[in-house]
């Protein structure tokens, strides 16, 4: 491919947000170049065959979809779909378990009564998630529009719900609604995915994380991407190409210099041509704020800290449960909670904050093959299912001194907690690759920093922000929440005000800011 010397827009980073921005801008007639440092696009939204001889397309990093607006799928004509999970969650509790069945309120009520001894917690559950549903329907439609002010969003949400989720530490709200330790923990885990915090953190980091986990699609549902997460990347690449956007992989951006009107982008390509440069009117940075600081040669500030352990597994069969009253196909079909009672979450946080791997690491497991069996290819002889484990309270600091030793200890402690609720050791159900090794693929924050350029291994590029602004918006970039210190460099990834997760919202909003500004600059528009 012969590149131009100048583009309307150069996008740094070919993750899903960068690809969304590229497709929107190219469809609007802008000349667009996407530069991706990895050999393949997609960033964390990729599928991979991780185990030799095992034909399963695992969603290696990101794995569920909630925040991707249908509007983006329709606007870009994406050939991408998701499937809903009937089972919301299962949480072992002694010889039984709490099964939340979206298809049967009666069965869910019975499960709550069996675990907690009364209907009280089920009724509180219904009231609580009726409240979050109302918030979701108020907030989610605003994510693909100009950034509302705090007062505007508060008016949409309503004063009572606003106080419960935006004003006071989430622990107070959870404790107000629920009395049972296990149920409190199941609710609160959504405040901890990718965020190292606790229930009563005065910074409200837990509230911000929780909010994004319950507003997706206006329902809070988390769905399985058909064909794995890589199917979304494939669809976005196709949309960008058909619109005329150019994509170069193996191209690491080494510097950006701008005078506020035109930017020069330097990059090193794998083509053997060495350093290259292109000019652009706008640069969209689909990378962490720390990476943006690096390429514009500015101080990076405090590095964020990721706090998760990711384990991908291939299984010959689903393991049996100690809870003989629950079918493993139901238990593993939703979110399987392990060591996630409210008190155990707090204890694990305190241990990790003190620099120790939690003695009983909390985690969640998902089995995508129960919802999308087609990710298992015909060439696989013995692997039938995948399990994706997301461990909580595993901050980067635990892996700083001796990453590999700490990783091994974290994996062993985490899987021991899973074994404690199974009727057989997990390793007896694990598939083996062509070399006879167990099919386990593990990523710590240190691994994510190395492979995905995520500073501190933080999956959201840093703590999430409430989806509103508190300052006046004088430019399109400020109106859309994508501004930087440079007038023609915009953020477009998870580091935008409404970033985080697989949503495409950061890319959409950066593209809208560019189009709004270029429209205003046309002759006759007062510029």
What would your notes on this structure say?
This protein is of the alpha/beta class and 527 residues long. It folds into two domains: 6-46 and 229-298 and 458-520, FAD/NAD(P)-binding domain (3-Layer(bba) Sandwich), CATH 3.50.50; 82-225 and 305-457. 34% of the residues lie in helices and 18% in strands. The protein contains 17 helices and 18 strands. The chain has helices at residues 16-27, 70-76, 105-116, 120-139, 150-157, 159-167, 170-177, 181-188, 205-214, 230-243, 289-295, 328-331, 342-353, 403-419, 445-452, 476-480, 505-520, and strands at 6-12, 32-36, 47-48, 58-59, 82-83, 87-93, 96-101, 224-225, 246-249, 251-258, 263-269, 274-285, 308-315, 335-338, 363-366, 385-392, 440-443, 489-491. The strands form four sheets. Strands 1, 2, 9, 10, 11, 12 and 18 form a seven-stranded mixed sheet that branches. The mean pLDDT is 95.
């Amino acid at each position: 491919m012969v590149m131009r010397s100048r583009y309307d827009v150069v996008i740094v980073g070919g993750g899903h947000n960068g690809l969304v921005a590229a497709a929107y801008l190219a469809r609007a007639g802008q000349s667009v170049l996407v530069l991706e440092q990895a050999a393949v696009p997609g960033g964390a939204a990729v599928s991979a065959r991780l185990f030799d001889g095992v034909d399963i397309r695992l969603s290696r990093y990101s794995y569920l979809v909630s925040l991707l607006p249908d509007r983006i799928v329709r606007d870009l004509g994406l050939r991408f779909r998701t499937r809903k999970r009937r089972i919301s969650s299962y949480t072992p509790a002694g010889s039984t378990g709490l099964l939340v069945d979206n298809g049967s309120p009666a069965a869910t009520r019975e499960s709550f009564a069996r675990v907690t001894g009364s209907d009280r917690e089920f009724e509180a559950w219904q009231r609580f998630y009726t409240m979050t549903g109302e918030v979701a329907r108020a907030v989610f439609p605003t994510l693909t529009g100009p950034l509302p002010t705090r007062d505007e969003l508060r008016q949409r949400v309503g004063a009572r719900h606003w106080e419960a989720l935006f004003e006071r530490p989430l622990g107070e709200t959870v404790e107000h609604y629920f009395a049972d330790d296990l149920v409190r923990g199941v609710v609160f885990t959504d405040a901890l995915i990718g965020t190292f915090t606790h229930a009563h953190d005065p910074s409200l980091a837990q509230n911000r994380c929780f909010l994004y986990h319950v507003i997706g699609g206006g329902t809070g549902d988390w769905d399985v991407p058909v064909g794995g997460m890589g199917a979304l990347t494939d669809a976005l690449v196709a949309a960008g190409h058909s619109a005329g956007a150019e994509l170069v992989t193996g191209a690491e951006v080494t510097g950006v210099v701008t005078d506020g009107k035109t930017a020069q982008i330097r990059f090193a390509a794998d083509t053997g041509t060495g350093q290259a440069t292109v000019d652009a009117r706008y640069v969209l940075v689909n990378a962490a704020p720390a990476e943006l600081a690096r390429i514009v040669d500015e101080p990076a500030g405090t590095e964020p800290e990721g706090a998760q352990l990711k384990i991908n597994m291939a299984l010959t069969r689903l393991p049996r449960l100690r809870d003989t009253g629950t079918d493993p196909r139901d238990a593993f079909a939703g979110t399987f909670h392990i060591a996630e009672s409210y008190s155990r979450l707090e204890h694990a946080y305190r241990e990790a904050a003190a620099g120790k791997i939690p003695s009983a690491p909390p985690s969640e497991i998902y089995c995508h093959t129960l919802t999308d069996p087609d990710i298992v290819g015909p060439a696989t002889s013995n692997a039938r299912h995948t399990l994706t484990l997301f461990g909580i309270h595993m901050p980067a600091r635990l892996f700083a001194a001796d990453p590999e030793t700490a990783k091994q200890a974290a994996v062993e402690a985490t899987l021991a907690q899973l074994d404690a609720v199974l009727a057989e050791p997990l390793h007896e159900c694990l598939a083996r690759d062509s070399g006879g090794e167990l099919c386990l693929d593990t990523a710590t924050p240190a691994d994510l920093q190395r492979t995905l350029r995520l500073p501190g291994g933080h999956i959201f590029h840093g703590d999430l922000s409430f989806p509103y602004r508190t300052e006046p918006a004088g430019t399109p970039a400020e109106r859309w929440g994508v501004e930087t210190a440079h007038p023609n460099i915009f953020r477009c990834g998870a580091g935008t005000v409404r970033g985080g997760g697989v949503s495409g919202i950061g890319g959409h909003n950066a593209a809208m800011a560019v189009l709004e500004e270029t429209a205003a600059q046309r002759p006759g528009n007062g510029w």
